[in-house]
Amino acid sequence: MNVFIAGGTSGIGYALARHYFEKGDDVGICGRNLATMSENNFENLKAFQADVCDTDSIAAAVHSFLNDRENLDIFINCAGSYAEDVAGKISYEEAEEMLQTNILGTVNCFETARKLMKGQKKGSIAVIASVSGILDYDNSSLYTKTKRSVIQIADAYRRALKPFGISVTTIAPGYVDTKKLRELNNNDLHKKPFLTDVETAVSIISEAIENHEKLVIFPAKMKWMMKSLSLLPSFLLNTIMFRKARWMKEDQP
């Protein structure tokens, strides 16, 4: 199979790239900074510098990867941007990056994959959202709102592409033990409930794509906790989530 992963130079994306590569698939990845994969690089992985916020950039990377190959079998968008703004302020630049990467980047990736797969009459597209995106309340963070948008965008593309034999899988993980998560939390993850290791996350995600599942939320405990919270009145959910965000920031410098 030909597999392309946007945001594949680190974290979950890179782990998925290794998974498919070790299965014998042809794998291409892209990211804004290829230096992030220098310490983990392995032979024959095709890496491209590209920005999902630039539709021409991401399209060029995928076309360069495919070259003379006939089909793009799987496209996975793992690119994302995070900054917490519930219990603290974020800069305009941080907000802009989240909006562009998480929303515009999602659309650009879908469009790139759609244009290639529509003529094939087959293919699988997957996007990494977040379990936080299943919550809908007034004072949710900008990150949560962007990831909720990702879920909705994916649902729209799923409906539109189904007649062409193209499946769309949305992945909404809880906390996954990646290098980025550790960097954001000064290597202290004791306040991250139901933490999932990367290998387990890769297994769940790859199986969901293979089975053409619509929406996969994991781990199960986080899924049911968030679904339970979503049943609360908005004012109560606002209070709970604000206190949770403030508690998680208490030990940070």
UniProtKB/TrEMBL annotation:
InterPro entries linked to this entry: NAD(P)-bd_dom_sf (IPR036291), SDR_fam (IPR002347)
Keywords: Oxidoreductase
Biological processes annotated in GO: phosphatidic acid biosynthetic process; triglyceride catabolic process
This protein's record includes keyword Oxidoreductase: yes
GO-annotated cellular components: lipid droplet
Gene3D superfamilies for this protein: NAD(P)-binding Rossmann-like Domain
Record keyword Oxidoreductase present: yes
GO MF entry, a single one: triacylglycerol lipase activity
Matching SUPFAM superfamilies: NAD(P)-binding Rossmann-fold domains (SSF51735)
PANTHER family found in the cross-reference section: NADPH-DEPENDENT 1-ACYLDIHYDROXYACETONE PHOSPHATE REDUCTASE
Family membership: Belongs to the short-chain dehydrogenases/reductases (SDR) family.
Protein name per its UniProtKB record: SDR family oxidoreductase
Lineage: Bacteria, Pseudomonadati, Bacteroidota, Flavobacteriia, Flavobacteriales
